[in-house]
Design goal:
This protein is an alpha/beta fold. The chain has nine helices and 16 strands. Helix 8 crosses helix 9. It is elongated and about 70 Å long. The termini are far apart. Photorespiratory enzyme that dephosphorylates the 2-phosphoglycolate produced by the RuBisCO oxygenation reaction.
Amino acid sequence: HVFLEDAANNNFHIAGAQKQQEPPRRRKAMAKALLTADAARSLVGSVDAFLFDCDGVIWKGDELIQGVPETLELLRKLGKKLVFVTNNSRKSRRQYSKKFKTLGLEVTEEEIFTSSFAAAMFLKLNNFSPEKKVYVVGEDGILDELKLAGFECFGGPEDGKKNIMLEANFYFDHDKNVGAVVVGLDQYFNYYKMQYASLCIRENPGCLFIATNRDPTGHMTSAQEWPGFSIQKCQILILGASIVPVHFLIALSFRSWNYGCCSKLLGAERAYCCWKTFKLFDGLPIEKLQFGNVENVHGW
């Protein structure tokens, strides 16, 4: 948190703090956690540069968070360097600079670092061939930064308008010269993009797969939370080719067959899941497990 000095009462407040009525016990705990005015001055004085996230710190959606303008103005007066960083790849630095200006904040492009810019710089610093193309599963921010870095790129929102007709013997063609796939937050995501990106990664030798961020949520509007680039807080249940259904189905089968234990098990290509399953499943000890494919069965 950044602390803002109020000239009227010489107290420090947390910029952007929510003015909600907290329970007495929580208010007491929060009061103990706040710095004193002297400690806050000492903290600010010991720092040369401040790095701010944007979504949820400077703004929520298109609404500026209370206390932010005063905080930034104070820090600039104190000679502090300000840097604004964001994992949101939807906008380029130029677009974010315009958003800051729309909200009444003067911030230059040089003070802004986005994940879309980081992706472009990663390719540039790792000598990505300028003769190779970049396919983008994301929005204009990634496309703009890649073009500014001198790379040929395509995809993005335009491919969100394309569809796939899953018909018999349908062949999906893709550009064999794509050397990298960059993925970010994409409100236009569809099955066409998924297929195109996966083909580039699987079939183009040496094709890089770069993700701009992995945030589980995003502050797209001030009204509520929105899905971010990924989900990390929920347990993923995949009903196919995973340990969970194998565990469940084998346990169910053995109970149906009244088998108390198994001395030998022969599995197919991914039967290694069964080994983990039986180690976890109480009451079904295994003496020997064999796994592998039909042509080459390995024993364990």
